[in-house]
Every structure is written in structure tokens, then in C-alpha cells.
Design a protein that fits this description.
334 residues, globular, 2 domains, 12 strands, 8-stranded mixed beta sheet, alpha/beta
Length: 334
């Protein structure tokens, strides 16, 4: 008998068992309601932020990243993670992630923030296979490690504007970060909407169930029915951004090209740039209204289930479009 091989298998089995138990703990560990409610309050003063984005998927990711970088006095960007996506702009989730990674680097050049390029990480190349198995990636590992430098009293803020695979994987890799982060996620539709199957959520329902179910502090910005109110038109972009800077020119020209090409009404199009709202929640301003709600349960059937006894999340239910648009334009053109 090969005792070395047997010993290795025993060690491997022990390691797998420990990992499995750790992943169970992410749901079974008791939630401190006082601490959770404190983390669900809007932060006061400067905070550290990482952003998880499918940057190549839509024009609004570029606006959100640019807004984050322009609000450095309040939001200190520590890392940027490329999220997977799969639609007609990518050949696979892995291809979508790689295109997003390259788009982040491009945007940092336009914004004059080459200093952040060493802190851009490739994310997951596939979605979660189930609710207990993480998809390892540079992004997931960085978040699982980086968040350990923070505490429930001083958490790391995670702005997520894509499929939530990277964040769910980080939580599964290291359940200890559950109480050390605040997740601000643009995902799902309004709770009263007919379906919860918004693009970010429907790509990885298992990951969405993890972040809503594990007890981490979640701020949800639903798409249809809430942040769908935050839209912009071509003439507005040209009036506000054109000629202001290389970054503004890029945002304007790219958005107008996409709007005119993809809209059914190329002369009068408007387009949501709703990813901006996730960044805006962290900034002082009369930009939105929110409240506490029991954490919803996204089901594999495509609707929310509800349990009044679930832990709370903060739920955004209204966007003050004009106030936020004013701040966004001022930030981008400053």
C-alpha cells in the first residue's frame, strides 16, 4: 500500500471537510442584529471601497467607475474587480470577464489613474456551480484577504454592479469577512415587480441567494421599478460632457454611439445609466430614499420569496434623478 498517497488523501479529505464546514458557517453563524443595523447605516466621512464590475457589458459601468474615481475625497478606491457576463457582447462568462478587465484598464488611462492598474483583478470565469462551491479567481481571493484588514466597526464597502459571483465566492472562501464588508449591489428588480430576473441576478442565482442569505450587510438597488428612473439622453450628454476632458469625451461619444445604434428610436433615445446609483448611495446627498426590509429570497423559478423573520437589508426604493444627475455631471467635469 502506498502510505504516502494514503496520507495525502487523508490530508486532502480533512481540508475539504474543513472547507465544507466553513462554508456552512457562513449561514449558521449567529448574526449580531445591532452590529448589522449599524453597518446598514449610510457611512459618515471617507470610506474604503472596492468595485466589482462587468465594465464591457454596458455604458453605465463606465459612468459608475468614473464617478467613483472623481469622488476620491469621500470614496477611497482600493481595488477594481472584473465580473463575468455572457450575452451578445461576449462569447462566454470568461470572455465577458476578460473584456471587462481590459475595459477597466482603458478607463483608468482616460481618467489619469494609472496608479490603480496594479489593483485591477480578473474575476470568475464561470458562475457558481451551486451554493457551497466558490469559483476561485484573483478578484475573489483578493476580497477574501483584503476584507480581513477591516472590522464590523470599520467595514470595507463593496460596490457591485454585475453578476455577484466574485463576492459570493469570496464569502465562501473566507466566511470571516461576512461581518467586515458592506455590499452595495445593483441587482434584481423591485420587490413588487413581477419577476426578480434582472440580468445581474439571473446570471448567477446561486450567488445571489448566498449574499441575501448569509447575513452580510446588503444594500440593494433594484433595477426595474426603482433605479430605472436614472436615465440620460444624447443631447444631454453632449451639452454637459462634450469637450470637457478626454474621459468626458469618451463617455459622451461611446454612449451616443451605443444609444443611436441600439435604440428603436435613434433620434430621441434615452438610456439608463443605473450603475451610477450604487456609487451614489455612499455619497452624502439627496439622491435617493431607502428603508429596511427583510432580506428577500431569489428563487430558481425567477421570483422572490419572502420571510418576515429574515435578517434586514437596506432597500432603495426611490431615486431623485435630477439631484444625482447634477452631482454626477459636476464630478465628471470638475
Amino acid at each position: 500500500m502506498d502510505f504516502c498517497a494514503m496520507d495525502y488523501r487523508n490530508q486532502l479529505s480533512t481540508a475539504v471537510l474543513k472547507q465544507t464546514e466553513a462554508r456552512k458557517n457562513i449561514f449558521s453563524a449567529p448574526i449580531d442584529p445591532v452590529s448589522l443595523l449599524k453597518r446598514l447605516e449610510k457611512p459618515q466621512g471617507p470610506v474604503d471601497v472596492v468595485i466589482d464590475t462587468d465594465a464591457f457589458n454596458e455604458i453605465d459601468d463606465q459612468f459608475a467607475i468614473s464617478y467613483l474615481l472623481k469622488r476620491e475625497e469621500k470614496l477611497h478606491t482600493k481595488a477594481l474587480y472584473a465580473a463575468p457576463f455572457f450575452n451578445d457582447k461576449s462569447n462566454s462568462p470568461a470572455d465577458g470577464m476578460e473584456k471587462s478587465y481590459q475595459e477597466i484598464l482603458k478607463l483608468l488611462t482616460l481618467a489619469g489613474r494609472e496608479d490603480l492598474k496594479d489593483f485591477v483583478y480578473r474575476g470568475s470565469e464561470q458562475y457558481l456551480p451551486d451554493e457551497s462551491t466558490p469559483v476561485e479567481s484573483d478578484a475573489a481571493r483578493d476580497l477574501a484577504q483584503r476584507a480581513m484588514s477591516y472590522t464590523p466597526e470599520r467595514p470595507l464597502y463593496v460596490v457591485a454592479i454585475g453578476a455577484i459571483t466574485n463576492v459570493a465566492s469570496a464569502l465562501l472562501l473566507n466566511p470571516e469577512i461576512r461581518d467586515r464588508i458592506v455590499l452595495v449591489w445593483l441587482g434584481g428588480h423591485a420587490l413588487e415587480w413581477e419577476s426578480c430576473m434582472e440580468f445581474n441576478l439571473q446570471q448567477d442565482i446561486a450567488a445571489a441567494r448566498i449574499i441575501f442569505g448569509c447575513g452580510t450587510a446588503v444594500v440593494q438597488l433594484p433595477c426595474m421599478g426603482v433605479v430605472s428612473a436614472f436615465s440620460v439622453s444624447g443631447p444631454e450628454l453632449k451639452a454637459w460632457l462634450q469637450g470637457k476632458s478626454p474621459l468626458c469625451d469618451h463617455l459622451c461619444s461611446y454612449s451616443c454611439a451605443v444609444g443611436e445604434r441600439e435604440s428603436r428610436y435613434p433620434k430621441t433615445w434615452s438610456r439608463v445609466i443605473w450603475d451610477v446609483t450604487a456609487v451614489a448611495w455612499l455619497i452624502d446627498g439627496d439622491f435617493m430614499l431607502d428603508c429596511l426590509k427583510p432580506s428577500p429570497i431569489p428563487t430558481y423559478e425567477g421570483v422572490y420569496a419572502f420571510d418576515r423573520n429574515r435578517h434586514p437589508i437596506r432597500y432603495v426604493y426611490h431615486i431623485n434623478r435630477d439631484a444625482l444627475m447634477t452631482d454626477l455631471v459636476e464630478a465628471l467635469t470638475s
